[in-house]
Amino acid sequence: MGFGFNLFVVFVLLPFTVVSVIIWLLTKRRLLLIASALGWVGILGIALLSTVVQALTSKIVLNKNDYYGSYIVNRDYFPGKQADWQYNNFRFEIKSNDSIFFHVTDGEKITKTYRGAVDMTAPYHSKRLNIVMAAPTHHIVIDNPTTYRGIWNFYLVFTSPKFGNVFFKKGDWKPLERR
What are φ and ψ of residue 97, in 5° steps? Predict the structure, then answer.
């Protein structure tokens, strides 16, 4: 909790509780004692509610193992022919031996694979992905991706000089259904 909360507990609620107990011992009237107990129940309820809300709304904290897996183009952000084409032509995998395989594909068939290595940095609380590709490499993986974290998941955005931003999410490639 914050500084103001601590001030309230130390300088208001705690002294009120002590005075309530002393008055109860002298007069045997429970009114102030009940008010004090309600104050503590309220404070504990607020603290519990705050903890639950923070756990349900804070962004995911990524570690090294979270990045391992297969990635596909995320067609949800900009749906259409371009996203479908990118989905059918690019995907990559990050392996647990810290290697990355960027695949240029024709649907299910992999036509070319660019190999590289991954490294994790932690300039903040959550790990960031750094990639080092063997030259020559594909224009999508020239630079490190930007990681965008949500509450339950994350996605990677590569900046391509030809396509602009290319969005990838974790997932397995499946053929697109014809519309």
Answer: -90, 20
